[in-house]
Amino acid sequence: MNDLLPPLVSDGQIVASVNGCLGLITLNRPQALNALSLGMVRDITTLLQHWASRPEIQAVAVLGAGREGKPPAFCAGGDIRFFHQAAHAGDASLEDFFTEEYRLNHLIHAYPKPYIALMDGIVMGGGMGISQGAKLRVLSDRSKLAMPETGIGLFPDVGGGYFLAQCPGHVGEWMALTGHAIAAGDAIEWGLGDVYVPAAQWPDLVAALTTRPQPTAEHVVATVMERADLAPASDPKAAAERIDRHFGAASVAEILASLDAAGDDWARDTAQTLRKRSPVMMAVALELVRRGRHLSLAEDLRLERDLVHHSFHLRGGATESETVEGIRALAVDKDHAPRWRPGNVADVDPAEVARFFVSPWAAAEHPLKDLK
Question: Across-strand partners of 73?
Fold first, then answer.
């Protein structure tokens, strides 16, 4: 058993165990909503690589540790406080974080054994990155899926340009720009989840996977599927029609103009949300999703690696970065009043947006050059 559990480096932020043929990865940072640290990224990568080579392990499941008396969180994203500190310190591990996280995202999508993501509660940003490549994405009525990066002056990364681009119609653009959270029914309809297990069944599901015999991968999948049910009623087709009416427009400015002209409550609320997001990064996000429809996952991740480098460096450093300012406002000073530059969509310079899409590396030197 011990040789199935390689040494880990995250100081308990990842808990690994084996139950029969099933390797279990528990994100164990509940006080931070299981947000990913660099150590956690490294440990998940180590476990997946080790278990891929071990015939005793036939399937892997990943879940988030719970918080006593509080709603669950699978994973709320990356450790944005670390991003802020590292950017100001010029810490090279900031670059390492994104290179290694995106490699992990690619590994999960290509994983040779069933990888099951138990997406109970909050699943945002980096949490989407370690779940969207799963063979089985399991949701509950507490699941809230979102890519909220434009609210911190970033863009939907961790493969978001790839998996959001595969959503029907212009749902991907809407999720990328607004950061709006969706529930299980919409997620399954729009291709971001596979099965729904009611919250009342969740403790028994976790207990079965962690403590009851799991002799084969088929048995692991059956353990999930025998508890699956129809997701709570919603009307995703009507929502998608409303989204398509506006988010198929050519630019962020035209999307806003379309919403303003509609004048209904949904359009007004959506426009109000967009006006709180970073204008520059909404333009970057829109371009990313639209390019993503013509990219492989590896190509998208290489592009996102370019974009995230520019998010911290394009303007010259941390004090000028839209991302660092967005994190400051949300998570450091918590004044929720980011000073976006520019503050209005109409003032975004298309030339600056275009510079985001120019790689800072020659192809042979790209940190993700070997992804296939």
Answer: 122
Q: Which of 79, 101, 157, 186 is catalytic?
A: 157
Question: pTM for this structure?
Answer: 0.97
Active-site residue, selected from the candidate residues 78, 125, 159, 185: 78
Cross-strand partners of 4: none
Cα Rg, the chain, nearest whole Å: 20
Domain 2-365, second-level architecture: Alpha-Beta Complex (3.90)
Find tokens 């180590």 and name the residue: 46
- Measured CA to CA, the distance from residue 4 to residue 223 in angstroms comes to 22
Known catalytic membership, residue 149:
yes
User: Where are the chain's structural domains?
Assistant: 2-365
Which residue among 149, 189, 287, 325 is the active-site one? 149
Cα dihedral 271, 189, 293, 60 sign: positive
Catalytic residue, candidates 23, 64, 121, 126: 126
pLDDT per position as a tens digit, 298-325: 999 999 999 999 999 999 989 999 999 9
Catalytic, 157? Answer: yes
Residues in CB range of 175: below 8 A, 6 or more apart:
146, 147, 156, 164, 167, 182
Tell me, yes or no, if 126 is annotated catalytic.
yes
Q: Tell me: the pLDDT tens digits for 127-182?
A: 999 999 999 999 999 999 999 999 999 999 999 999 999 999 999 999 999 999 99
